[in-house]
């Protein structure tokens, strides 16, 4: 490798991808009833079914950003091997984890005068962040330098598209992204929000539709409107314990756009505590976010 790649657990990459990409993951954390858990543990499989059942029961989950100590440990592990580092962080508009990484890099860089460390704020969430990691790995594998790879990501950052819909408005309401009155009316009328991660890295609404099926179809239609050369793209998707719906959506995408592949994973524990069960999202390269 010409350089190491570090990202955090909100990239929502599969364990097989993490191994294949040869990258290091810094976990964010979450707490239930005062007990803290890591959002990612290397080599361990997580029981998402049990976790999503707790979310459906409205168990309150508190989330925390990546700790300075874990960021520092991940950086030093690679730097001590003599590797330069590309660090891809969860959107700074959604978490303080990016600033933690920025502070840590500033603190330790003088101790490694012969090493280069570049931080890229992905301004992305979930597998939108994960898709940027994939492109970084592809560039590294193609022989691009650390600087060239970071420049590609910065130059194309706003072409990485993340489209979301959620099924239960309770979680958006609890997180302050939706008023209580709107959530109640929306639930009664079966209104589903259409959301995306905008150019500032925020999760914002782009509209609403009535009914779950229409919300998913609206995401797929938007993909067709903005996707760049979809036939040559590897598409990423995540779901909030609604795998059958995600697989059905993936089949529609394959049929409509003849994409190279669709990779599906769960929404991680940290993000799902804010988006809830039934979240479904699509990630691809497009003309605009």
Give a verbal description of the structure.
The protein is globular. The longest helix has 16 residues, at 126-141. Helix 3 (68-79) packs across helix 4 (97-108) and helix 9 runs parallel beside helix 10 (243-257). The chain contains eleven helices and 13 strands. It is an alpha/beta fold. The relative contact order is 0.16. The chain has two domains: 4-157, Rossmann fold (3-Layer(aba) Sandwich), CATH 3.40.50; 159-285, 2-Layer Sandwich (Hypothetical Protein Tm841, Chain: A,domain 3). The strands form three sheets. It has a six-stranded mixed beta sheet with strand order 10-9-8-13-11-12, with helices on both faces. The chain has a four-stranded parallel beta sheet with strand order 2-1-6-7, with helices on both faces. It has a three-stranded antiparallel beta sheet with strand order 4-3-5, covered by helices on one side. The two termini are 31 Å apart. It has helices spanning 15-21, 48-56, 68-79, 97-108, 126-141, 146-156, 170-174, 180-188, 212-226, 243-257, 269-275, and strands at 4-8, 24-26, 29-32, 35-38, 61-64, 85-89, 117-121, 160-165, 191-197, 203-210, 234-239, 261-266, 280-285. The chain is 41% helix and 24% strand.
Which features would summarize this protein structure in a list?
24% strand; single chain; Rossmann fold; alpha/beta; 289 residues; Hypothetical Protein Tm841, Chain: A,domain 3; 11 helices; 41% helix
